[in-house]
Amino acid sequence: MSIEASGIISTDGLMIASALPVTMDEDRVGAMSAAMLSLGDRTAQELARGGLEQVLIKGIQGYVLMTYAGAESVLTVLAKPNAKLGLIFLDVKRAAIIIADML
């Protein structure tokens, strides 16, 4: 499996649900996810790129993908560096739709 962790976070940074390693601080992940998605949203608007779909961060140890899951929540996923991004994007998009419907 390429996905290592995930979380559903309110747009104000509070963790709603998560499957994170015990070494990760939920509050910190929540705050960073909300801040990054907000910054990405503003950047997309200011640079005339339209509505934000997702924020992708690539690091040596893997990827962080953030996307809106409805108007009030963010889905954050951590993936391994060898992950097939096309499949991750598809799974995350589907999951975000389901989460938005539930919330």
Spell out the key features of this protein.
single chain, 103 residues, alpha+beta, Beta-Lactamase, 5-stranded antiparallel sheet, 5 strands
Notes on the structure:
The protein is of the alpha+beta class and about 100 residues long. The chain has a single domain, classed as 2-Layer Sandwich (Beta-Lactamase). It is about 40% helix and about 30% strand. It has helices spanning about 25-45, 85-100; strands at about 5-10, 15-20, 55-60, 60-70, 75-80. Strands 2-1-5-4-3 form a five-stranded antiparallel β-sheet, sandwiched between helices. Strand 1 (about 5-10) and strand 2 form a beta hairpin. It starts with a strand and ends with a helix. The model has no long low-confidence stretch (mean pLDDT about 95).
As residue ranges, the low-confidence spans are none
For the secondary structure, the number of strands is: 5
Q: Biggest sheet, strands in spatial order?
A: 2-1-5-4-3
CATH architecture: 2-Layer Sandwich
* Strand and helix order: EEHEEEH
Give the mean pLDDT.
93
Number of helical regions: 2
Supply the helix-strand structural class: alpha+beta
**What is the CA-based Rg, rounded?**
13 Å
Beta strand %: 25-35%
Q: Globular, elongated, flat, extended or rod-shaped: what is the shape? A: globular
Our measurement of the CA-to-CA distance between the termini, rounded to an integer number of angstroms, reads: 26 Å
Going by CATH, the homologous superfamily would be Dynein light chain 2a, cytoplasmic
The helix content, as a percent range, equals 25-40%
* CATH T-level fold name: Beta-Lactamase
CATH class category name: Alpha Beta
